[in-house]
Amino acid sequence: MNVEQAARQLEALGSPARLRIYRALVRAGHAGLPVRQLQERVGIPAASTLSHHLHRLILTGLVSQERQATTLICRAVYPAMNALVGFLADECCADETCSGTGEAA
Question: What are the boundaries of the signal sequence (predicted)?
Fold first, then answer.
């Protein structure tokens, strides 16, 4: 993952409403949630507002949508989530000098 992609994803998650939406989808698992159920869970009264937030998360690759008959199912894209978390953690403490005890010198 590159810095620009990580920045776009973090910016999308920087909205409290989008973070609530994303967390609800992560919590829902691979089955995802129908849009109406997602709307109820996160407490966004206007469908157009939810649609706007979902669109932003879809553009960054964090969320996908699939139509099943008349129902639109939203899902967290777990590989994207794992890549973002990995990007943030991969170089954790890389510049610290170790004393051999597992603690910084």
Answer: none
